# Entry
Amino acid sequence: MLLSQDFITPHITDAHALDYPCFKTGFICEVGLPRWAPIHLGSMAIDISPTKHVVMLLIAATLCLVTLLLAARAHMRQHAESGQSRGFANGIEALVLYIRQEVIIPNVGHHGEAYAPFLLTLFFFILFANLLGLIPYGATATGNISVTAMLAVITFFVVEFAGMRTLGRGYVKTIVYWPSDQPLAMNILLTPLMTPIELISKITKPIALAIRLMANMTAGHIVVLALVGLIFTFGSYALAPLPLAMALAIMVLEVFIAFLQAYVFALLASVFIGLIRESAH
# Structure
């Protein structure tokens, strides 16, 4: 069981060290990350030292930036030469256009192009963070609830800003239930009941985003850990081929899930922005 823990659990757990391949027992060695003095806010100490997941997020951001800039550069060069993109640039262009035209604009609604850069950045950042958790000695930062919660909080503020920008003073109606097409007596009765529900709905949306992404990115690794653990549970290497084949199939499925969860997060963020903007109608 120790071997399966050494190879699998580091993908879903955070630490103040990075793993790298070596020829010691378990084929894993660690290099420590710098530890900084905590910041004290009253009686509370906040540790801001970098961790493995922080490093993975920085790598994901760098890969996202480099990939898209190189694709944009190749796209402009190839269009100047032949009038059309090809290869790597064409693949990235097709993915960007699909997310923009089929996911963002239909769900965000009229003038939704303004939110396309944010939602595309969200999609690619989450995608790279998901994929980094599948490579050997990597880690799934999106399996950390702190990471997904911050992504959800950022999305929450963008959604609320979209509502303020579109609705103006009417934004208050997304908080206080007061429909204009009902009698005054009905509004007086329903407002105390429905207003808390409106507030709860605002809070549950980012919570759902955070938990969905974290749970899906963690579940696959746990299943692989369980399957590999069957070999050591039964204590028979004769049974090894079947659990290993199933674990390999799960890892292949995890590649699809990495794309799917980035897509779902961007889709739901687009839907939430579109819903609050449509409150004006």
Remarks:
- The chain has one domain: 2-33+47-278.
- The CA atoms of residues 16 and 227 lie 28 Å apart.
- The chain has seven helices and four strands.
